[in-house]
Amino acid sequence: MGRLEGKVALITGAGSGIGRAGAIRFAREGAKVIVAEISREGGERTVAMAREKGGEATFVETDVTDAASVERAIAAGVAQYGRLDILYNNAGGSTAHDGPVTKVSLDEFWRTIKVDLFGTFACCKFGIPELIKAGGGAVINTTSYVALAGIKGRDAYTAAKGGVLALTRSLAANYAKHHVRVNAIAPGAIQTERVKRFMNADPRLGEMVGKHMLGLGEPDDIANMAVFLASDEARIITGAIFPVDSGWSAT
Length: 251
Ligand SMILES: NC(=O)c1ccc[n+]([C@@H]2O[C@H](COP(=O)([O-])OP(=O)(O)OC[C@H]3O[C@@H](n4cnc5c(N)ncnc54)[C@H](O)[C@@H]3O)[C@@H](O)[C@H]2O)c1
Prior knowledge:
This protein is an alpha/beta fold. The chain has one domain (8-237): Rossmann fold (3-Layer(aba) Sandwich), CATH 3.40.50. It has helices spanning 17-28, 40-52, 67-81, 106-133, 155-175, 193-201, 206-210, 219-230, and strands spanning 8-12, 32-37, 56-61, 86-89, 137-142, 180-187, 241-244. A seven-stranded parallel β-sheet has the order 3-2-1-4-5-6-7, with helices on both faces. Strand 2 (32-37), helix 2 (40-52) and strand 3 form a beta-alpha-beta unit. It is globular, with a radius of gyration of 17 Å. The model has no long low-confidence stretch (mean pLDDT 96). The chain binds nicotinamide-adenine-dinucleotide. Nicotinamide-adenine-dinucleotide binds next to helix 1, helix 4 and helix 6.
């Protein structure tokens, strides 16, 4: 029996990278997975990959920066599978346009705030009531190693991920009485296609790479932590931030 057997999970940004790995893994563990993704092509590909491995998944076109789109996606997922037990807020990411506050554009600041922070907020706003209706559940947010220590050159993204980190704790305090657990994963550099492009474009990232004591992570390393946090194995864990960063935050 899978570790998520009988559960329904919605994963945002599951059309590539870490979200895709999570969707495939959740489906293999027995969850019915709602792939809430802005890219139809990426989302449908993830669904096909999950089904090839014998899992159950469905794509719902979703823009997490648009509250109405999030509300529709959650309603569509619940209509399809009857309930929601797990909300995995993964959509987001930094870009090469970020920088120190005096250099980064306001557009880039609002872009990352909208996707990473507002997107998480909106999904919780419409998703947590469904978890409560299901008798409780798990929220997994995605922060980043950049929110755990000061790093150079990414002030906009760091602000957004710091917000996600703080929000995780306040949501945990608010919804524990409904048996809704809220935790966050803080990945180190994970070798998704996006991050590989990023690293190739900026050789200064070598210093940051060197701090990953056990080498850079893969999307499956994050999926492993997400499965645990989503499962009943984590039943008394809430309000916690888990670095999965190859020791980056320890130094
Ligand atoms: N890869 C890393 O090194 C790393 C490190 C720390 C944190 N993270 C975080 O992990 C998460 C996933 O990162 P990744 O590297 O897999 O990124 P990725 O770019 O590979 O995947 C992100 C997915 O989100 C989707 N997306 C973008 N905007 C969206 C929107 N408005 N609505 C819905 N979907 C949208 C994209 O289409 C894409 O499929 C992000 O929150 C990122 O900040 C990643």
